[in-house]
Amino acid sequence: MPRPAHLAALAAVALAACGGADPRVADEAVPLVATLSATATPGAQKLLAGDRAGARGAFESALGANPDDLGALNDLAVSYFLEGHAEAARRLLDEVVAAGTPRAQQAALVNLGELYALEGYLTAAQAYLETARGIDPSRPEPWYALALLADARGDATAAREAVREALRLDDGAAARAGFAYLYAEERAHLEALIAEQAGDRAAAATRWREVGQGRFGTLSQAAERHLGAD
After folding, report:
1. How high is the pLDDT of residue 25?
2. Coiled-coil ranges per the record (predicted)?
3. Residues of the chain with pLDDT under 70
């Protein structure tokens, strides 16, 4: 395992080793959400504002200043992922899971769940997300991701229960404010589930139509199920 002082170098090597952007997603892919360890940092603010390159530079600077900050390593991995470097992101996330604080580990596990779900390995994604939830069940982020995955897999009951619990824990929507989205369908899917939970059928239907017109067959099928049930 690399020592903490070498984490900045690990990040650079991981990105260089993976070369260009990774191939696009598998036929059975399910996009979920990516989550940051902290939202108030300069890098997080840049990332959430859409400045991915600026965010990457800020996270790298944070790691250079404090190599022990594995939360920043998680967030750097998210920036790599959003730039299309999934394998580089995976290497960093594995390091966070191995050596991070429980909070950083939980965020990294949620993000690994998204990586595996996008590759179509839904059972593995489920295992990562359940492990993340087990670290601290009072955090809403794993619950949101589990709701999205359950819905895409056609388990309506599990999806409703998970999103209900996520919303209960996320009073004020602070956790959702820390989500990063690689695809527009991710945000639309989450907003559709939330609108349904709130009883706003019109808003939910609008979001489901957006989901259904997207690039993911798994989500198009989910949208058809929901629109057909109205």
Report:
1. 53
2. none
3. 1-26, 230
User: What's the confidence (pLDDT) of residue 175?
Assistant: 95
- Strands (DSSP E) found in the chain: 34-35, 179-180
What whole-number distance in Å separates Cα of residue 155 and Cα of residue 136? 23
- Separation between Cα atoms, residue 210 and residue 77, nearest integer Å: 28
Is residue 151 within 8 A of residue 189, CB to CB? The reply is yes
Whole-model pTM over 0.85: yes
Between vectors from CA 51 to CA 85 and to CA 28, what angle results, nearest 5°? Answer: 40
DSSP state of 187: H
Q: In the structure, how many helices (H) and strands (E) does the chain have?
A: 13, 2
Give the pLDDT of residue 173.
Answer: 95
Measured CA to CA, the distance from residue 3 to residue 19 in angstroms comes to 24
Instruction: Tell me which of 3.40.50.20, 1.25.40.10, 3.40.50.10330, 3.20.20.140 is the CATH number of domain 30-140.
Output: 1.25.40.10
What secondary structure letter does DSSP report for 167?
A: H
How far apart CA 223 and CA 30 sit, in angstroms, is 13
Longest dimension (CA), the chain: 55
pLDDT of res. 229: 81
